[in-house]
Amino acid sequence: MNKERITERLKLLGFTSYEAKAYIALLENYPSTRYELSKNSGVPRSAIYDVIRKLEEMGAVNGTYSEPVKYIPLPPEELFQLLQRQFDSRIKEARESLASFDTTIEPGHLWNVVGYQHMIHRAQEMITRAVNSIYLSVWQREFTLLTEDLKMAVQRGIQVILFSFTPAELPGATIYTYNIEESNLEKTWDHKIILVVDQNELLMGDAENRYSRKTAWTNNTAIVDIATNHIILDITLFGLRMNLDVSESVNSMQKNGFENLGDLLKHTIQIGHPFA
User: Fold this and answer.
1) pLDDT, tens digit, for every residue of 219-255?
2) Which segments of 99-220 does DSSP mark as H helices, in order?
3) Are the C-beta atoms of 245 and 271 separated by less than 8 Å?
4) Cβ-count burial of 88 within 10 angstroms (0-12 exposed, 13-18 middle, 19+ buried)?
5) CA 249, CA 208: separation in Å to the nearest integer?
6) Distances (CA, A) of 182 to 106, 144, 166, 194, 240
7) Given the DSSP bridges, would you call strands 159-164 and 133-137 parallel, antiparallel or unpaired?
8) What is the DSSP letter of 202?
9) CB-based burial of residue 155 (10 Å sphere; 0-12 exposed, 13-18 middle, 19+ buried)?
10) Which residue of 54, 105, 130, 238 has the fewest CB atoms within a 10 Å radius of its CB?
11) Phi and psi at residue 206, to the nearest 5°
12) Hey, CA dihedral for 92, 93, 99, 103, is it positive or negative?
């Protein structure tokens, strides 16, 4: 990973650009004086004193008892542990200070999740909270980002049923995929995601990482049912086209009003279908 990318990662942890560059330079050459650190990092000499002070306050660097003072970096793993403890402490303090506010989310509303990373994080949170079932229609790129969370869900005994036009593998899950190369599919369609958890929580919409899009989240029963039925339809058509019995999955996903659908699917597969 190049220095620019490392700098961007550290900025996400609260470092300024100068602080990140100074810390990285110190990892490469230590101990270093302020002058040496400014020269090696590209941080202006006029700013290096303030940068070093901030890094010391953060606990990321330490000065030696020498003249001139030389600085050594806190090893990365120890730095991450320190930042984790600080972050956990701040979260606890913020939670306690905001505990008196009533922010109960009224059921049935449709909420916007803005941005690709926020969409992925919301999907991961939903999968982690799953108690009984996860129904997912997704492309390979997003599936890859959610794979570890889905694996843990399978290990917890959660029913996972997945439909995709693109390749996907997950031991312990029920997967229906056409195995179309994602690059070929992208020539025609944009990435989409439908995630239904426990048949009462839904994340649905565009899954494009090239520009900011809004994804919808809701626990509105009617909308959740419509999205679930969309996945059921995709799986049903898959079964018909591939001459595959999908009735077990469809029966487990449906609520009311589809009592005879499983028998209908079996009958259709037995007699053949123009899609097959």
Assistant:
1) 899 999 999 999 999 999 999 999 999 989 999 898 7
2) 116-129, 140-155, 182-185
3) no
4) exposed
5) 28
6) 38, 12, 6, 17, 23
7) parallel
8) E
9) exposed
10) 105
11) -70, 150
12) negative
Q: Which amino acid is at 32?
A: S
Q: Which domains does the chain have, with CATH numbers?
A: 3-95 (1.10.10.10), 110-271 (3.30.870.10)
Report the alpha-carbon distance of residue 130 to residue 153 in Å, rounded.
7
The tokens of 80 are what? 């991450």
Is this prediction's pTM over 0.90? no
Q: Which of 175, 220, 214, 172 is nearest to 196 (CA)?
A: 220
- Strands (E) across 166-264 are located at 174-177, 192-197, 201-206, 214-218
Q: For residue 48, give the amino acid letter.
A: I
